[in-house]
Specification:
Helices cover 33% and strands 22% of the residues. The protein has 302 residues and is α/β, with parallel strands linked by helices. The radius of gyration is 20 Å and the shape is globular.
């Protein structure tokens, strides 16, 4: 394929928390990069992943935190990252759940979209959960509130119509260079992905209250000299002493469960054995501390 026909550009995936943004991105890329859970605020940083088709071009996806009303400094940071991205990309993918009701969260996103001139593809996700005939109604509801470039019903979980999303994106991308080699699927360093895997497993295992208030720091990640095993030490940081007890669990059972589940996935990611040690520390109200937010890798300038 000649460079003149190669399309490349940046696409952001936006939507309210919990509409399936990370599930869609993992499905589009064909590999798990972004963590998923049914709890809001799962994605905190802008994760960059790369889809390359040597016949068509290259799409660089930015999976942003959900756009929502911020309650603390971490929340403000997350919303700033998401809203700033809208002006920096070539195509916006807006993910919504199927329905006729357009709530305050969606209205807020429409207001943000009206400020930019970027083509917006609306993806109505989770259509496998509703009656087929209803989908046309939902498309009509959304068509009235904004002039979308395209509207595509999908199920990210089932992989339904995901190819259509890729084809539509390529329609609106400019011709441009190949930014990454064709084997690259993410710009996230392995340390960052490992920290996120631990956080995901904690989100899955813990109850409602604790997860928002946790961060994970990788203290060290070293391959043994004789190879084949990576030693990883990590700390789960929470906001309260009572949370620490919940995360550790009775006789350490909860921490062990989180560690076992995380290790299994890290071994798949790194393709070698992992010896994982986990600690739990309390840092009160870290989500309102600029220093600690930066310390855990949430940086505005990235």
């Amino acid at each position: 394929m000649t460079a003149a026909n190669f399309k490349s550009g940046f696409v952001t995936i936006i939507g309210r928390p919990n509409v399936g943004k990370s599930t869609l991105m993992n499905r589009l890329i064909g590999q798990k990069i972004a963590i998923t859970s049914n709890k809001p605020q799962t994605t905190r940083n802008r994760i960059q992943t790369v889809y390359t088709d040597m016949d068509k071009g290259q799409i660089i996806f930015l999976d942003t935190p959900g756009i929502h009303k911020a309650k603390n400094k971490l929340g403000e940071y997350m919303v700033n990252v998401a809203e700033k991205t809208l002006t920096e990309v070539d195509v916006i993918l807006w993910l919504v759940e199927p329905g006729n009701f357009i709530g305050a969260g969606e209205q807020h996103i429409v207001e943000q979209l009206k400020k930019v001139h970027t083509p917006v593809i609306l993806v109505i996700n989770k259509v496998d959960t509703v009656e087929h005939d209803k989908v046309f109604e939902y498309i009509d509801t959304y068509r009235k509130i904004y002039d979308f470039a395209e509207i595509i019903p999908t199920s990210a979980l089932r992989g339904q119509n995901v190819e259509d999303v890729i084809d539509s994106i390529f329609k609106y991308l400019p011709y441009g260079p190949q930014y990454y080699d064709e084997d690259t699927i993410t710009d996230q360093p392995e340390r960052a992905i490992c920290a996120e895997i631990i956080r995901e497993k904690a989100l899955h295992a813990l109850n409602e209250e604790v997860p928002h208030g946790i961060a994970v720091a990788i203290d060290q990640m070293k391959e043994r000299k004789d190879g084949g095993i990576v030693d990883i030490d990590a700390t789960i940081v929470c906001e309260r002493d009572s949370h620490k007890g919940i995360i550790i669990g009775k006789q350490g059972a909860m921490l062990k469960k989180i560690g076992t589940n995380a290790r299994y996935e890290m071994e798949r990611l790194l393709d070698e054995k992992v010896n994982l040690k986990l600690w739990v520390k309390v840092k009160k109200d870290w989500r309102d501390s600029d220093f600690l937010i930066k310390n855990f890798g949430y940086r505005e300038d990235e």
